[in-house]
């Protein structure tokens, strides 16, 4: 691979859209087909902005051709929250994930964020991509607290040090302002995919809230619908 130079290349992640992530020395290379929902150029913008406030990868290069795009970043320390090290201690991992998401929301300044991940913006984007989103979704719950959301707060996108402290966040392609429950709902749901049933409430507790079932149900369903 030309982007890797002389470094040894190892594929570390494959997504459902056909995108691949490779490690190459002290760098990571994301490569995949162009995506109408997000783009790696947009992710690079968000990483550069967010990096002033929270730990996330430094952007080294980005580009595209007619069909594909790529993003090269500097590696962060720590392990993915779905590394076997953490899968074997799910309670500690989930507690760390909840705390980390709260740190993200408390650290990124809403007033200077120029991107949106609100329910109307996501619904509009999905419909423009040809997804039939039922009209019921147009009636979102009243916003609890607007924050800069991660946009894809699934467990693999948080990196943890072995003591459970935050190492950093990755995959900011959808980062934008929204109700905090848009992230909380997906982060809590993701614990069931990665660690099994029974951890959603612990995730929310570790974030520092009581479950808000109306907002959880809405944003979980919106995630699945869009």
From TrEMBL:
* One Pfam family of this chain: APH
- Return one GO MF term: kinase activity
| Chain sites annotated for binding Mg(2+) | 157, 171
Q: In the UniProt entry, which residues are flagged as the active site?
A: 152 (proton acceptor)
> Any one Gene Ontology biological process term?
response to antibiotic
UniProt keyword annotation of Nucleotide-binding present? yes
Tell me which UniProt keywords the record has, alphabetically. Answer: Antibiotic resistance, ATP-binding, Kinase, Magnesium, Metal-binding, Nucleotide-binding, Transferase
| Residue ranges annotated for the Aminoglycoside phosphotransferase domain, each copy included | 38-218
Q: Which residues are the signal sequence here?
A: none
Q: Which SUPFAM superfamilies match?
A: Protein kinase-like (PK-like)
Q: What's the domain of life for this entry? A: Bacteria
Annotated PANTHER family: 3'-PHOSPHOTRANSFERASE, PUTATIVE-RELATED, AMINOGLYCOSIDE PHOSPHOTRANSFERASE-RELATED-RELATED
Its family remark reads: Belongs to the aminoglycoside phosphotransferase family.
Query: What is the name listed in the Swiss-Prot or TrEMBL entry for this protein?
Result: Kanamycin kinase
Which organism does this record belong to?
Answer: Bowdeniella nasicola
